[in-house]
Amino acid sequence: MRLRTRFGGIAFLLFIAIFFDFREMEFKWDMLSGVCEEVYTYEGKESNTNQLTKTLNENLSPAYESVAGKFSCGEGSISIPIPKVSLFFDPPTILLIWGITFLVVYSRKGNRIEMWEEASHVAKDVGELGAAIGAITVFWGQFSERSMSIGFGVCFISYFVGQATALFLKTYAQHLKRKQHMEEATNQESVSAS
Description:
- By secondary structure, the protein is α+β, with helices and mostly antiparallel strands.
- Helices cover 64% and strands 13% of the residues.
- The protein contains 6 helices and 6 strands.
- The strands form 3 sheets. It has a two-stranded antiparallel ribbon. Strands 3-6 form a two-stranded antiparallel sheet. It has a two-stranded antiparallel ribbon with strand order 4-5.
- The chain is elongated and about 85 Å long.
């Protein structure tokens, strides 16, 4: 399998994982962000909420069917639609991870295969470093639900970029290994033929 096919396949599967909603079988380009003040709305057998509350209070362990309902965002919620691409394409995170990975492993001398394999491991480590930096920065700040949401987002985008970069680097290293093995096999065949 050619290197472009491998890279294209990985990129396509990541694209599907990020943008395709398998429950609704459609592409979702946006998602909701913000703060949801969660409210539980009863939709059980009783039509009157007060009657249902009375029934629940009388029975300490009500059956699941009697408390059927759903969660929704109530008053005071802030819902902000944002494009998913803005979440997964974060230039400062990409620059940090790719820059440090390059500075750690780049060398003009030595085995190129080993360099690319090492780069894949370093990219994962730098992703974890980026997550730690994001966590320290956000979680030592003023606490709020929104800051927690941002904090986890910063941490996990670093993990994502580090892991995705490592996958592409490892794929390239494996491509070079196979190419080297094929060249060695061709050389051995030509030596044994002569």
